[in-house]
C-alpha cells in the first residue's frame, strides 16, 4: 500500500497547501529569487487563479509568502512575468527602483468566450505587497480568444520593453517605452513548430553560443497545451534564431520541432528576469506536471511542484546548436556525499549500490560510450523506475511503467526517450531523484527527461544492470540531497 502523504519533494518547491501550476514572475531583486506561481489557495485542483509567492536566496531553500495577486473586477490572475523597472520608465516609483508584474487578467463572460487582457501591478517593498495599476488592463486584442502569458524583458539595442505573448497558436511581439503603452511589432509561429495544442507561456532571451558572447543567438520557448489527440499531453518546444527588437527570424534548425524536455513533466517553464550581469546565467524552472493528468496526481493536501532550477546554455553538438540544461550549481550546497568511485567495474558498483537505501539524491555516472547501462531507482517489492542509456538506439530513457501509482490516468505509464548526440567517447548521466520525481540530464545536459513518479515510500533501492560484464565506470558519484533551512 502506498501512502500518498510521502510524495512531497525534499528539494523541490511545493506549496504548503492546495494547487499550483505555472511558475510566474520569476525575477531576481536585492539578493532574492522570486517565484510567483499560478495558485488556487482554496482547493487542490485548478480553480480561480491567484499568484502565489515564494522567495529563495539559494535556489534550494524556499520561503512561502502570502498570496501576491488575487482576482478583481477584471478577472482572475493568469500567467505572466515580472521585471525590475530600474529607470522608473513606468513612473510607478519615487526614489527606489521596484518590481512590475505584467500578467493576464482572465474574465469569464456568461454564455461567451472568456476575455483575456494584460494588466500591471507594482511593488515598492520587494514583492511583499502589490498595487494594481488603476488603468488596467493595458493591452487587449479583439482577434484572439487565447491571448495570454506575457513575458517582458528590456531590450538594450532598441531601448524598449519587449513583450512576447501567446496568441492562439502563434506568439506576438509587442514593444513599449513604459510598460503601459504597447505597440505590435510582429507575429511568429505560422507554419513552423508544433501546433499540437494552444500556444502558452512563451519566453525569448539571448544566449552566447558555446560561451562566446560574439556568437549570440536568441532562444524562444513556447509551451503547447494538452490536446486529447496526443498522448504526450502538454510540452514545451524551443526555437533558435535572431531578434532585432521587432521580429524573430528562426534558424534553419528550428524548422524541425525541438523539445526542451523529453519527459512528460516539465511544462510552462520560463527564465528568471534581472539576473545580475556579473552572474550572467539564464536560469529556468518549469512546472513539474502535465495538463493531461495534473488534476489527478495522487498527492494529499497540495498538488503541484516545480522542477529544480536549471541553467540554460546554447552549445554546438554534432554541428547543431542545441539548448542545453544543467542543474543550477546552488544545488551542490545541499549535497551529502554517499558514494564516490573511480574506474570501478560493474560488479564493484553493483555491490556498493545494493547496500544503499535512498529517496532524495543525485547520481552522476560516466562510462565508455558504446555500452548500454540501466539503473533501477526507487525500487522495492512492487516498484522500480528504469533509467538508462540504450547505446544501440542511441537514446536515454525513463520507463515509469512500474514506478508506483500509475492508474490515475491511462497515459501516465510508459517509457520516454531522447536521442543522444556523441560527446567525447563517454556517456554521462546525471539523475536527480526525489519523493515523486526523476530529472535526468544526459550528456552534460544535451537531453533531459523530467518525469513524475509515485512509488511506495519504502522503495529506496538502487541497482544497475548491463549486458557488458567488462563495463567500467570511469566515475560514479552519489549524493544525498537535503537542504536545511538556515
Ligand atoms: C499554462 C496555462 C496558461 C494560463 C495558466 C492558467 O499552463 O494554461 O496559459 O495562463 O495556465 O492557470
From TrEMBL:
Domain Glycosyl hydrolase family 32 N-terminal as annotated: residue spans: 12-325
Pfam families: Glyco_hydro_32C, Glyco_hydro_32N
GO-annotated cellular components: cytoplasm
Molecular function via GO: sucrose alpha-glucosidase activity
GO process annotations (BP): sucrose catabolic process
Ranges for domain Glycosyl hydrolase family 32 C-terminal: 330-480
Protein keywords: Glycosidase, Hydrolase
InterPro entries: ConA-like_dom_sf (IPR013320), Glyco_hydro_32 (IPR001362), Glyco_hydro_32_AS (IPR018053), Glyco_hydro_32_C (IPR013189), Glyco_hydro_32_N (IPR013148), Glyco_hydro_beta-prop_sf (IPR023296)
Name of the protein in its database record: Glycoside hydrolase family 32 protein
Amino acid at each position: 500500500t502506498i501512502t500518498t502523504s510521502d510524495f512531497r519533494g525534499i528539494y523541490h518547491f511545493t506549496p504548503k497547501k492546495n494547487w499550483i501550476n505555472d511558475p510566474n514572475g520569476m525575477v531576481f531583486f536585492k539578493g532574492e529569487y522570486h517565484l510567483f506561481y499560478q495558485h488556487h489557495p482554496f482547493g487542490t485542483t485548478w480553480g480561480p487563479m491567484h499568484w502565489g509567492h515564494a522567495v529563495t536566496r539559494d535556489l534550494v531553500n524556499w520561503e512561502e509568502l502570502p498570496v501576491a495577486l488575487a482576482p478583481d473586477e477584471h478577472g482572475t490572475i493568469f500567467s505572466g512575468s515580472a521585471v525590475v523597472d530600474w529607470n522608473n520608465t513606468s513612473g510607478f516609483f519615487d526614489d527606489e527602483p521596484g518590481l512590475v508584474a505584467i500578467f493576464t487578467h482572465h474574465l469569464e463572460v456568461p454564455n461567451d468566450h472568456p476575455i483575456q487582457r494584460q494588466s500591471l501591478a507594482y511593488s515598492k517593498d520587494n514583492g511583499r505587497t502589490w498595487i494594481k495599476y488603476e488603468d488596467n488592463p493595458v493591452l487587449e486584442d479583439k482577434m484572439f480568444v487565447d491571448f495570454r502569458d506575457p513575458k517582458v524583458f528590456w531590450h538594450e539595442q532598441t531601448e524598449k520593453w519587449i513583450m512576447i505573448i501567446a496568441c492562439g497558436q502563434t506568439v506576438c511581439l509587442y514593444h513599449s517605452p513604459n510598460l503601459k503603452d504597447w505597440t505590435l511589432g510582429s507575429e511568429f509561429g505560422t507554419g513552423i513548430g508544433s501546433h499540437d495544442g494552444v500556444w502558452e507561456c512563451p519566453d525569448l532571451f539571448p544566449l552566447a553560443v558555446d560561451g562566446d558572447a560574439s556568437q549570440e543567438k536568441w532562444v524562444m520557448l513556447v509551451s503547447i497545451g494538452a490536446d486529447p489527440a496526443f498522448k504526450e499531453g502538454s510540452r514545451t518546444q524551443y526555437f533558435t534564431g535572431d531578434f532585432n527588437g521587432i521580429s524573430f527570424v528562426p534558424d534553419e534548425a528550428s524548422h524541425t520541432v525541438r523539445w526542451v524536455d523529453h519527459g512528460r513533466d516539465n511544462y510552462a517553464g520560463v527564465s528568471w528576469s534581472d539576473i545580475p550581469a556579473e552572474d550572467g546565467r539564464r536560469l529556468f524552472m518549469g512546472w513539474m506536471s502535465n495538463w493531461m493528468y495534473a488534476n489527478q496526481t495522487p498527492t494529499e493536501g497540495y498538488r503541484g511542484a516545480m522542477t529544480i532550477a536549471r541553467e540554460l546554455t546554447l552549445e554546438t553538438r554534432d554541428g547543431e546548436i542545441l539548448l542545453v540544461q544543467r542543474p543550477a550549481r546552488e544545488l551542490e550546497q545541499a549535497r551529502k556525499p554517499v558514494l564516490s568511485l573511480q574506474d570501478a567495474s560493474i560488479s564493484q558498483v553493483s555491490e556498493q549500490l545494493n547496500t544503499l537505501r535512498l529517496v532524495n539524491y543525485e547520481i552522476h555516472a560516466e562510462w565508455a560510450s558504446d555500452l548500454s547501462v540501466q539503473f533501477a531507482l526507487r525500487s522495492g517489492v512492487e516498484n522500480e523506475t528504469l533509467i538508462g542509456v540504450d547505446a544501440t538506439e542511441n537514446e536515454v530513457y525513463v520507463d515509469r511503467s512500474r514506478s508506483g501509482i500509475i492508474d490515475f490516468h491511462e497515459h501516465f505509464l510508459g517509457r520516454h526517450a531522447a536521442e543522444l548526440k556523441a560527446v567525447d567517447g563517454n556517456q554521462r548521466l546525471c539523475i536527480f531523484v526525489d519523493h515523486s520525481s526523476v530529472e535526468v540530464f544526459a550528456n552534460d545536459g544535451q537531453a533531459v527527461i523530467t518525469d513524475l513518479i509515485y512509488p511506495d515510500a519504502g522503495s529506496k533501492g538502487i541497482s544497475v544492470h548491463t549486458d557488458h560484464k567488462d563495463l567500467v565506470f570511469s566515475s560514479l558519484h552519489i549524493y544525498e540531497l537535503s537542504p536545511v533551512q538556515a
